[in-house]
Every structure is written in C-alpha cells, then in structure tokens.
Amino acid sequence: MRLTAADEKLEDMSDRPKIEVIDRRKIKAEEEKESGAAAQAAPAEKPAAPAQSGPGPGPRLVVNEAAREASGREAEERESAQAAEERLAEELPLGPTAEEGRKSKAAYDASAQRIEDLIRAQNPAVGAQPPVGFEHLVQQFYLSAMLQMGADTQEGQRPRVDIMGARATIDLLGVLAEKTKGNLSATEDRMLQSVLFELRMAFLELSSMVTAPNVPPAPKGRD
C-alpha cells in the first residue's frame, strides 16, 4: 500500500509526544476560591497585647508595713481578750435569777437603812446620807490610785508607793470608761475623762522618777 504525503504527515504527528494544554485562569480562580474559604473558617487572630515593662500609669497601692503590723497586733489582742472572756464565762457559776436578784436588793436596802437609822439615833447631828451616784464611784477610784502613788505621805517621811496597784486601779477606771461609753451624761463623761487624765499624768511622773538612773553625787572639792 502506498502512503500519500498526507498520510505520512499524520503518521509522523502520531509518533510525537502529546502536549497537554493547561488553562492557568481556571487554576487561579480555584486557588482564590479555596483561599477565601480557608480565611472564613480560621478564627481571626487578636493582636498581641504590648508587653509592659513596668507598672502602669494608674494609682498604685502602697502597703504600710508598720500599720499592717499594728493592725495584726490589735487583732491578736482582740482574739486574746475574747478567749479570756470565754474562759472566764466557763469558770463563773450560774448567776442569780431575776427574782433572786430583786429579793437580795430589797433585803440589802432594808439592812442599810437600819444601819443608817442606828447611826443617826446615836449622832443626831448626822444628816441623811445622799444616794450613791456615778460620781462617787469615780471619786473612789481616784482616791485609791492617789493613795497608792503616795499622795498621803507626810512631810519628811519616805513615801510608800504601790506603783503596780496604782496601775491596776487606773486601768480599772479605763475599763469603766470603755464599758460605759455612750451611756453617760455629758457631765459624767467629762468628769471621768478629767480624772483619768490627771491619774495617768501623775503615774507618768512617778514612773519617770522610779526608772530614772541614779545620779552619783558630785565629788567634794579638796580643802
């Protein structure tokens, strides 16, 4: 069979490798589509907060160590006082009932009145005793503390001082002031505070004399 020129040309083309034509526009469109879908699926990243090298410009809390220690000591003292009060409450016997208290007061008043009538019968010049009030209680504490600090010492005599007893009496008067706070008249409160101030200042002066170092006498001059 004789091949024509056209047939030979076709045969030559069939032996050559085939060339695949790729449409870049289609591939680019598919890539953009996939990129958009991935961007929608991924969560948006938040910008990182700038690192702070030091405290911000806002107000700063300054802790006072001394105030914190004082507050801690006060809390410990309150807890200690509360624990002591609880122990005292457990040790104390049961108090009298209201009826027992009323009867004992009536019997006491009657007995005191009989003693007063007896004294007045023996000494007609003695008048009726005034009722005891809050001012008498404060005066009693005041006299006790002053005597304990040697206020009754005669001139030329060595004072006899019970400084620890005086301290206890003054502290008792301070407890009275604390427990009656808000329940006193203006006159009673002023009197109580004045007495406390005077006693504390007297105690301060006395304690300074007691704790002062002994000063040696000056050497005598040579004749």
Q: Approximately what portion of the residues adopt beta-strand conformation? A: under 5%
Major β-sheet profile = none
Supply Rg. Answer: 51 Å
Distance between the termini: 172 Å
Q: Number of helical segments?
A: 7
Task: Report the structural category.
Answer: mainly alpha
The number of E-state strands comes to: 0
Present the secondary structure layout.
Blueprint: H1 5-15, H2 24-41, H3 65-91, H4 98-122, H5 134-148, H6 163-179, H7 186-211
Quickly list its features.
single chain, 223 residues, mainly alpha, 7 helices
Describe the overall structure.
The chain is an all-alpha fold and 223 residues long. It has a domain of 78 residues. It has seven helices and no strands. The termini are far apart. About 2% of the residues have low confidence.
